[in-house]
């Protein structure tokens, strides 16, 4: 009996020792929440991050680090000896690429991201027009953690129509899927804040152009379902703010005179949030119908402008190639897809239905 008690006691002590070692290891590990990628010189890249300071009595909570190398992994190895404690990317929240790096191609920089099992697939991607490492000089309120701030910026927004979100998983799924190209949001730096302003569009892993906020809105309405967000339109001398409560898009590929054709039908459920004319809409079905027609025509114009950009740059972030492959395999030629897409006829039909008019009406 005494031997059993001794064995149990010994096991409990061993469990406590192992637990303390795990906690100690975590305490000695530093977790950066963002990484930036810039071009430094031919075949040399510059990276930057902020890493929490290990000692509580240190004058600053975080330390800024810039490091460079021919690849991310090479530079990351050189950073490790400069940091007190082990560096882990297990809590990485966002990777920010300069436009120059994105135009050159992202695939060489992301091999480590795929191979390292601790890097989250939910890590967000963003592109910035200038130097990505200038983010180090931005002090955002109310947190000193830029990675956390940006994650909240993307995930905490209420406007699904322009706040495009691309994760590590999203990028590689698009990259490895036939008939769809990646798309990454554009991040513009301010003095003490940051703002999502449009998106970068790709051919494979290379950025080939940009979309404006309105073009991003048109893209998300066509590509996604169940979105919510505001749309402001000037109707004659008044301002009308619509709130999209739901959207449904149907895309049908076909062939016409040896040329691809896409019929896009978009249905929207809409509320009226503001009408600066301050009239009672409930008593005027004809006015409601006119407001629906104004929304339809404005969005149709935005969608056609979107396709003008996409077809000119031969980039397909909507995934029309994937849809064609699934619905009309006989019309999909992977070797000629970009050319076929650039020449395709696009026909758009929008049906908006105003459901709620607000208390004032």
Short characterization:
The protein has 361 residues and is an alpha/beta fold.
Summary tags:
33% helix, 361 residues, 10 helices, GMP Synthetase, Chain A, domain 3, alpha/beta, 2 domains, 4-stranded mixed sheet
If you had to describe this structure to a student in words, what would you say it looks like?
The chain has a five-stranded mixed β-sheet with strand order 4-3-2-6-7. It is α/β, with parallel strands linked by helices. The protein starts with a helix and ends in a 5-residue tail after the last strand. It contains ten helices and 14 strands. It folds into two domains: 184 residues, no CATH class; 149 residues, 2-Layer Sandwich (GMP Synthetase, Chain A, domain 3). A hairpin with a 2-residue loop joins strand 11 and strand 12. It is globular and about 75 Å long.
Helices and strands in order, then pairings?
Blueprint: H1 2-27, E1 29-30, E2 34-41, E3 44-52, E4 62-69, H2 72-79, E5 86-87, E6 94-98, H3 99-104, H4 111-115, E7 124-128, H5 146-155, H6 168-176, E8 183-189, E9 194-203, E10 206-211, H7 213-223, E11 229-235, E12 238-256, E13 259-275, H8 285-313, H9 320-327, H10 337-343, E14 345-356
Parallel strand pairs: 1-5, 2-6, 6-7, 13-14
Antiparallel strand pairs: 2-3, 3-4, 8-9, 9-10, 11-12, 12-13
Helix pairs in contact: 7-8, 8-10
């Amino acid at each position: 009996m005494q031997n059993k008690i001794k064995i149990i006691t010994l096991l409990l002590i061993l469990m406590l020792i192992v637990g303390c070692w795990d906690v100690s290891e975590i305490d000695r590990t530093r977790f950066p929440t963002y990484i930036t990628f810039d071009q430094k010189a031919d075949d040399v890249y510059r990276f930057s991050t902020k890493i929490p300071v290990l000692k509580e009595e240190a004058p600053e909570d975080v330390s800024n680090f810039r490091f460079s190398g021919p690849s991310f992994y090479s530079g990351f190895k050189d950073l490790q000896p400069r940091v007190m404690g082990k560096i882990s990317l297990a809590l990485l929240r966002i990777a920010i690429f300069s436009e120059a790096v994105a135009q050159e191609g992202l695939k060489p920089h992301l091999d480590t991201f795929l191979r390292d099992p601790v890097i989250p697939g939910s890590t967000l991607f963003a592109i910035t027009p200038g130097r990505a490492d200038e983010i180090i000089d931005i002090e955002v309120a109310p947190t000193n953690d830029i990675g956390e701030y940006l994650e909240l910026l993307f995930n905490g927004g209420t406007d699904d129509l322009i706040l495009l979100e691309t994760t590590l998983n999203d990028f590689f799924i698009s990259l490895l899927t036939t008939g769809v190209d990646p798309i990454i949001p554009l991040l513009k730096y301010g003095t003490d804040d940051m703002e999502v302003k449009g998106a970068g569009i790709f051919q494979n892993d290379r950025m080939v152009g940009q979309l404006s906020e309105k073009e991003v809105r048109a893209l998300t309405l066509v590509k996604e379902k169940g979105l919510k967000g505001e749309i402001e339109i000037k109707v004659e001398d008044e301002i009308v703010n619509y709130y999209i409560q739901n959207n449904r898009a149907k895309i049908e590929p076909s062939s016409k005179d040896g040329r691809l054709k896409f019929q896009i039908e978009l249905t929207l459920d809409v509320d009226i949030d503001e009408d600066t004319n301050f009239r009672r809409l409930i008593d005027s079905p004809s006015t409601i119908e006119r407001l629906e027609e104004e929304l339809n025509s404005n969005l149709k114009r935005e969608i056609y402008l979107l396709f003008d950009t996409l077809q000119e740059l031969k980039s397909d972030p909507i995934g029309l190639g994937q849809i064609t492959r699934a619905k009309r395999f006989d019309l999909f030629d992977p070797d000629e897809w970009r050319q076929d897409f650039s020449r395709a006829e696009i026909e758009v039909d929008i049906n908006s239905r105003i459901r709620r008019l607000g208390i004032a009406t």
